[in-house]
Amino acid sequence: MIKGFREFILRGNVIDLAVAVVIGAAFTGIVNAIVSGLINPMIAYVFQAESLNGLTWDVPTLMGGTTTFAWGAIIGAVINFLAVAVVVYFVFVMPMNKLKERAAAREQLPPEPEPMPSEAEILIQIRDLLQKQNDAAPPKP
């Protein structure tokens, strides 16, 4: 059991995942600043919405009390998620994809050479050439 865990840790995927988490945490601050400083004010300008948290739905319960569904908070979370996704895509993902495409275009690896024929294929070709030469040669008297 411990041997399997050690192999899992030393495989390398865990290190890559840890680096991704750290970099993701660093980008979180940047993305949140862009969303709260740019995207949310633009949404507020278009929709004139002060806060969606006030949008609730009170429903009577079976025991005689009431319960509150905060559907405005859900809508706000969805809008926030979409805003973060838009920022991440257009600020980080799309430019990185363009850079990768340009780098791949610059590298333009030469085409792979044809594989060498096997020894058996070469012997077959030699046999066929010798047979053609013998067939083309004039008969001996």
Can you describe this structure?
This protein is mainly alpha-helical and 141 residues long. Helices cover 70% and strands 6% of the residues. Strands 1-2 form a two-stranded antiparallel sheet. Helix 2 (13-47) packs across helix 3 (71-107). The protein is elongated and about 120 Å long. The mean pLDDT is 80.
Compose a concise summary of this entry:
The protein is mainly alpha-helical and 141 residues long.
Query: Sheet bearing the most strands, described?
Result: 2 strands, antiparallel
Average residue-wise pLDDT: 80
CATH topology: Non-ribosomal Peptide Synthetase Peptidyl Carrier Protein, Chain A
Assigned CATH class: Mainly Alpha
Radius of gyration: 34 Å
Shape estimate: elongated
* Poorly predicted spans: none
Taken as a percent bin, the fraction of beta residues is 5-15%
Series of H and E elements: HHEEHH
Structural class: mainly alpha
Please bin the fraction of helical residues.
over 70%
Strand order of the largest sheet: 1-2
DSSP helix count?
A: 4
Count of strand segments: 2
Distance between termini?
85 Å
CATH architecture: Orthogonal Bundle
Number of domains: 1
Function: Channel that opens in response to stretch forces in the membrane lipid bilayer. May participate in the regulation of osmotic pressure changes within the cell.
Pfam families: MscL
Organism: Microbacterium schleiferi
Subunit structure: Homopentamer.
